[in-house]
Amino acid sequence: MxxxxxxxxxxxxxxxxxxxxxxxxxxxxxxxxGQEMNLGEIDIMYQEFDGYGVRVRLRKYVYKPGNLYKYLNxxxxx
Length: 78
Prior knowledge:
Blueprint: E1 11-19, H1 23-36, E2 43-49, E3 53-61, H2 70-73
Antiparallel strand pairs: 1-3, 2-3
């Protein structure tokens, strides 16, 4: 049986709003959030500070270009 995560084509994005004092604190907290969620290496794809906090989009690549894609080798089982 395969997991849903093994069938993700490339990446998972998480978008949220983090209350913080400035853009640098927001970036630090966003990266900390990725660690706390056990995502490993994440990228910040979008960041916008509005005076109260920062809207961020984090991306966790499940498969980077050139990786062995498990979903190409799985037989369809239902």
